[in-house]
User: Which sequence fits this backbone?
């Protein structure tokens, strides 16, 4: 959408269609825009860190194949994500501390940030999560008494 706005502004200020086309042909987009990848665990990772607005969130959810209701979980309340999800009817946004089975079961999809996954593991994961978190932070897990 930013390229479209730039093109409209260029035409409105007298740029020729030819010079506009030449400029757009060489435009470089952000590498953080809709970059799909796969985590070592096999999970699909979408990095859309470039922008946070309802249109970009809708595009990200569509790119990930979410066509119906989706629960988006963040580590903490994130103002940018909240603003992005605010007007999307099929999106429910929760911080990980409020994640619950009822919300998970009432949504057709679940999208969690890395921070949200770690928070949920810490809240619900028990010993396995404690060991994993300690290992990722380079700390030996506490021995049980």
Assistant:
């Amino acid at each position: 959408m930013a390229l479209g706005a730039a093109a409209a502004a260029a035409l409105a200020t007298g740029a020729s269609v030819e010079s506009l086309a030449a400029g757009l042909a060489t435009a470089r987009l952000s590498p953080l825009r809709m970059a799909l990848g796969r985590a070592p665990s096999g999970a699909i990772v979408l990095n859309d860190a470039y922008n946070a607005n309802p249109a970009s969130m809708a595009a990200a959810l569509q790119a990930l194949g979410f066509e119906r209701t989706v629960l988006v979980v963040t580590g903490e309340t994130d103002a940018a994500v909240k603003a992005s999800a605010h007007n999307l009817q099929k999106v429910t946004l929760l911080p990980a501390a409020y994640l619950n089975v009822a919300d998970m079961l009432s949504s057709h999809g679940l999208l969690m940030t890395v921070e949200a996954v770690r928070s949920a593991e810490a809240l619900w994961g028990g010993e396995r999560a404690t060991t994993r978190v300690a290992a990722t932070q380079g700390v030996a897990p506490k021995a049980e008494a």
Remarks:
- The chain has a mean pLDDT of 74.
- Residues 2-12 form the longest helix (11 residues).
